[in-house]
Give the backbone structure.
Amino acid sequence: MKRTLGIIAAILIVLGFGTIHGSYSNAEIIGGSLIGMGSLYLLFVLYTSGKKEDQ
């Protein structure tokens, strides 16, 4: 699950940087949103990876 979230987050960040340099007017808003969502996913994975699970 965490690996999948990490991969999705990396893809969102890469797509965000690619979208910022797009040719239409709302590209900066969409690109910034994609980068922000990817960063939040990575922060979530980083925060939850340090906790030990009780089994």
In short: The chain is about 75% helix and 0% strand.
